């Protein structure tokens, strides 16, 4: 029988070193890099809140203090903006502090996503919870997390978000073996493999950075040995849960996501994300797209006969 305990808490791992974005991330957390004028991590917290999760635990590390500051009140700045009558910017500054009840715990040393999730055990307790990775942004118009919570309520166990990719991309992700259910967008997961070679992948459905986990995952993580890269992988723990009886918190299901996902995990994808977000902003789109068309046209003209 499915465990219908409500999902009320979100866990956001944010302890990575951000080495792909050095030197920008030497003193600034990768999660604080802006998508136009809002740090990427705020979009993630907003997604959790939109799905009804207003208790958010951030798993941080050294040099991440600015994340805590961002979600706290900034009284001097607020007073200055208020004195100037700049209500629009004042509202924007206060928005992040009023979003959710924020909690923080330090991971200590980067031992992988599974270890980061295990750091949430004391805060989460024996409740199901969501995990949102900061590198993946899900468009607010595509209510993926809400759907995953619905699926958890119906089937119990744990739920992961899945996207279909070209076979040559599977080796960069966790990949699943799946069985259909009566619902078109829901599958039962029978196996999970972390970053398999393309010719050994069980499918071309990859796990993206959204999970709804049963609390049983904590006991499994505690006994999960380091896997690929010497890190404790959440994928390995979920693989164990896929073979665990439902009455012990087992069973893993997947929601097939066909909506809009933005990747901020590497420089090229980050730049694409900024351009996409700017192109849809009412206050920027017209001027930005006009400039972008001119820039691309000039660039194409200048690049004739050369590699772009």
From TrEMBL:
Enzymatic reactions: alpha-D-glucose 1-phosphate + UTP + H(+) = UDP-alpha-D-glucose + diphosphate
Annotated EC: 2.7.7.9
Alphabetized GO MF terms: UTP:glucose-1-phosphate uridylyltransferase activity
Keyword field: Nucleotidyltransferase, Transferase
Gene3D superfamilies: Spore Coat Polysaccharide Biosynthesis Protein SpsA, Chain A
Name assigned to this protein: UTP--glucose-1-phosphate uridylyltransferase
Residues spanning the membrane: none
Lineage: Bacteria, Bacillati, Actinomycetota, Actinomycetes, Streptosporangiales
SUPFAM superfamilies named among the record's database cross-references: Nucleotide-diphospho-sugar transferases
Residues in Nucleotidyl transferase domain copies: 9-271
Protein family according to the UniProt entry: Belongs to the UDPGP type 2 family.
Keyword Nucleotidyltransferase: yes
Enzyme superclass (EC): transferase
CDD domains reported for this sequence: UGPase_prokaryotic
Pfam families given in the database record: NTP_transferase
Source organism per UniProt: Actinomadura parmotrematis
